[in-house]
Amino acid sequence: MTGLLKSPTTHITGFAIAIASLPFWLIPNSGILAIAIVALLYAAAATAFNLTAGLGGQLSFGHSIFFGLGAYATALLRQDLGWNVWAAVPVALTIAVVAALALALPSARLGGVYFVLVSFVATLALESIATWASDVTGGAAGISLTVGSPAPAELRFENPLGHYYVALILLTTFLGLFAAVTRSNFGLRLRAVRDDPAAAAASGIAVARQRTVSLLVSAALTSLVGVAYLQYISYIDPTSAFGSMTASMIAMPALFGGLGTLWGPVLGATVLISVQQTLNPAFSGLPAGLGLIVFGVLVMALQTIEPKGAVHLLRSGLRHLGQRLGTSKRTAQPAGDSLT
Predict the structure, then answer these.
(1) How many other C-beta atoms lie within 10 A of the C-beta of residue 91?
(2) How much of the chain is helix, strand and coil, in % rounded to 5?
């Protein structure tokens, strides 16, 4: 019974049930629901990012590449060719994986800040290309999809609640996959590469191969989030697809919550995305990039307090509270005995 309670599957199932019930008792209006949908989507993207950055130690600031390619590919196939979203998904996923492979092959041996720089330059380049190729992408104006009549089978919902549950299914699936990878031999090799690449290579682990495979899987998952985001917003442009803010909204929840942990990206997205979405109206008349500064300040503040992330800070707080409560009970016990 104790083993069952400690099982990640049990925790993920309980989480899914709890979050699925929120619209019925805690989310009071459509505005809060919209924030919740975006938070769930970026929690899923951060979990995909965590697969390569948290387990493999290969930090990337370019996961918006895969997010944007998934969204743009689906938008073009739906709008220009009239494809069903389910027909577009495999194409979008394949394009993202090919892009990840193109990024990984010349830079798979790079680590630390070097791969971060390569991935960041790549996403900036794609943003510029998407803006320039206006005949295909709509340029800076982007692509607005014709919504059409509601069709839940094609992920078109009359009520945003449908998109909420799509986002929750994505996140729950990604959490289950992350937990499975963590417990697998592949996950063990990834952590070995993360902790000491030289020692991992000396023990026979193909470091570049492990990093490449994790990046390909992460890219495929992130592209699915891009598709779900497009289905929800029905609009995509170069900035929302490939911009630095999108890259930050994917990476920083994992960094804030705790890299390599199951619940770090979820906790990070809950805090950061909720703050960002709540403050968006206040940022509308202010210089671009202010939201990114807020993200950075929050992450740096937490790193100063707990470098391992918010999950570890929360665990330490709960452990300390438990110890305090236990001490209080032990202190109170002799008084109880004397009255007996």
Answers:
(1) 15
(2) 80, 0, 20
Which amino acid is located at 64 in the chain?
Answer: S
Q: Tokens in use for 129?
A: 């290309």
* C-alpha closest to that of 155 among 141, 169, 143, 142: 169
Per-residue pLDDT of 181-192, as tens digits, reads 999 999 999 999
Q: What is the pLDDT of residues 60-106, one digit of tens each?
A: 888 999 999 999 999 999 988 888 899 999 999 999 999 999 988 77
What residue segments make up the domains of the chain, in order of their start? 2-243
The pairing of beta strand 235-236 with beta strand 143-144: antiparallel
The Cα 28–Cα 17 span in angstroms is 18
* Beta carbons within 10 angstroms of residue 198's beta carbon: 9
How does 253-270 read in b/e, with b if 16+ C-beta sit within 10 Å?
bbbbbbbbbbbbbbbbbb
Provide CB contacts within 8 A for 141, sequence distance 6+.
Answer: 134, 237
Name the DSSP letter for residue 84.
-
Helix-helix angle 8-25:30-50, to 10 degrees: 160
11 Cβ contact partners less than 8 Å away, ≥ 6 residues apart? 262
The residues, ordered by sequence, that sit 6+ positions from 71 with a Cβ below 8 Å of its Cβ are 92, 226, 227, 229, 230, 236, 241
Tell me 288's DSSP state.
T
